[in-house]
Structures are given as C-alpha cells and as structure tokens.
Amino acid sequence: MELGRRVVLKGAALSGLVFTLDGVAVVLSPRQARADNIPLTILTHAEQESLEALGDVLLPGAKEAGIANYVDHQLGVPPGEALLVARSMNVPPPFVNFYRAGLKALDAAAQKSQSAGFAAMPSAQQVDFVRAMMKQNPDGWAGPPSPFFYAVVRMDAIDVVYGTVEGFARLGVPYMPHLLPQRSW
Fold first, then answer.
1. Average pLDDT of the segment spanning 91-111
2. In Å, what is the CA distance from 90 to each residue of 19, 51, 146?
3. What percentage of the chain's residues is helix, strand, coil (to nearest 5)?
4. How many Cβ atoms from other residues are within 10 Å of residue 74's Cβ?
C-alpha cells in the first residue's frame, strides 16, 4: 500500500507511527496502538509477551506505553529508517534477528533457571533474573550477549515511555521539539 505524503507527514508531526488497519493507514502512538489492540505483524504472541514483561521490569509502564507495538512496527520498516536503538548500536540488519534471538535466549534461560518462560515468572523473580542478565549471560542463554540485549531493550523502553510530551512532563522537563506536534499523543 502506498502511503500518501500527508499521512506520513502527519505521523512525523505527531511522533506517531503509521499502522495499516483494514487497509487504511492510521497514525497512532505505540500506546494507542496497544490500547486499540492493533495486531503485531512481525513479532509472535510469545515474543510480544516476553518483550512486554522485560520492558516492564526495565521500566515500569513500558508495556502500557506500547513497547511491543513500537518494536514490531520498527522491525517492519526499512533498516535505514528504523528508530530502534539497535540501529544506532550497530546491530546488523535485519533487526528482527537480534530481537528474536534475544527473546528466545531470555525465555530459554528463564525456563532453565525457573522452570517458566520469562513472562510467566513472578515479578520478584523477573527482577532478580534481569539483575543477573545485565551483568553476564545467565545459564542457558544462547543469544546476543545478555548485557547488550538488556541495554538495547532498556533504551527502547525509555524511548517509548519518555519520548512523548507526557513522558517529558512526568520527568518535569520542558518538551522542546524542533517541530511541535499538532495535538497531544
């Protein structure tokens, strides 16, 4: 589907993402996409659950802010246009390989140590697991180095939670973009 210039510019002005819903291009923030149950197109349901659980441990509120919708959307754009932190950290494209390998390693290592996938672990165990993985690969980890995966997903969580007008307000920082959004997002 070819997007019109107006839709793309509107999305850029709103710092929203362009999603296709029933063949129609709509501009939504990751939070709105999650709230509206916009289906993911790249990540599986299990990957979504793991990413949301990890995101919420790294930065409470990342799940509701739409971290999975944001990452999924960005995995579907050309690598040179992706806003993912992985791109600036020199992760080789396609970026989906990095996220899939990291999420698979996360669940495999969690399963080995706790007999449950990461998303199914109790909150306190998730926190302990993440504290360990930020230092070194947990037993059973077979993916990108866990401290690196931790850092990339943490920065994605920060982007999706605080990279908004509301996020800046929660931090008490004035929002001073080069182009102001036409409406709140």
1. 98
2. 26, 20, 16
3. 60, 5, 35
4. 24
Distance (Å) of CA 128 to CA 67, 107, 138, 139: 21, 14, 11, 14
* Cα(126)–Cα(120) distance, integer angstroms: 9
R_g (Cα) of the chain, nearest Å: 17
| Residue tagged 């802010």 (tokens) | 65
Q: At what angle do helices 146-162 and 95-114 cross, to 10 degrees?
A: 110
Domain ranges of the chain: 40-171
Report pLDDT digits (tens) over 77-98. 999 999 999 999 999 999 999 9
Angle subtended at Cα 32 by Cα 15 and Cα 13, rounded to the nearest 5 degrees: 15
Cβ partners under 8 Å of residue 1, min gap 6 = 20, 23, 25
* Tokens 């102001």 found at: 180
pTM for the model stands at 0.84
Q: Quick one: pLDDT at residue 179?
A: 66
Burial of 159 (0-12, 13-18, 19+ CB in 10 A): buried
Could you write out the three-class secondary structure of 63-131? HHHCHHHHHHHHHCCCHHHCCCHHHHCCCCCCHHHHHHHHHHHHHHHHHHHHCCCHHHCCHHHHHHHHH
Distance of CA 154 to the CA centre of its chain: 9
